[in-house]
Specification:
Structural class: alpha+beta
Distance between the termini: 34 Å
Mean pLDDT: 87
Helix content: 25-40%
Strand content: 25-35%
Number of strands: 6
CATH topology of the largest domain: hypothetical protein PF0899 fold
Number of helices: 4
CATH class of the largest domain: Alpha Beta
Order of helices and strands: HEHEEEHHEE
Largest sheet: 3 strands, mixed
Radius of gyration: 18 Å
Bound molecules: zinc ion
Number of domains: 2
Length: about 140
């Protein structure tokens, strides 16, 4: 499943960083999830915890902290940047966009020039934001 594959790549990064920093024990990892990333956060968190608990000793007891990164858009026409939450969308549409980010271009317009031509500069993907451990 998608969530498990994402969790696996995060765990692989944790392993690499732990190795590079010569950490003997990892106490906490913070993982950021983009607001527009198509993911079941509960499944993802469960997958992460499962993989960590079955991994080699340094990360076995690591606490997982999930943080959501708010989406941000940048207009290709006038350069305005704005955030998802400032949009006046109905809850149904906001929900739909969370599941199918491509729909954003149908419903969201630049607040300045009303162009639908914008890029998502923030709020997608899943990555390891930080890691705490002991040397
Ligand atoms: Zn614009």
């Amino acid at each position: 499943m998608h969530e498990w594959a994402l969790a696996e790549s995060v765990v692989a990064t944790v392993k690499r960083v732990a190795h590079e920093k010569k950490l003997h024990r990892i106490t906490e990892i913070t993982v950021k999830v983009g607001e527009l990333q198509q993911i079941e956060r509960e499944i993802f968190e469960f997958a992460l915890e499962q993989m960590l608990s079955q991994a080699d000793s340094p990360m076995r007891d690591a606490k997982v902290v999930l943080e959501v990164e708010r989406a941000q858009f940048c207009c290709r026409v006038c350069g305005t940047r704005w955030a998802f939450e400032t949009q006046q969308l109905s809850p149904e549409i906001a929900e739909a966009i969370h599941f199918i980010p491509e729909l954003a271009h149908t419903y969201i317009r630049c607040p300045q020039c009303h162009s639908p031509d914008f890029e998502v500069v923030q709020g997608r993907g899943v990555w390891l934001a930080s890691l705490k451990g002991e040397e």
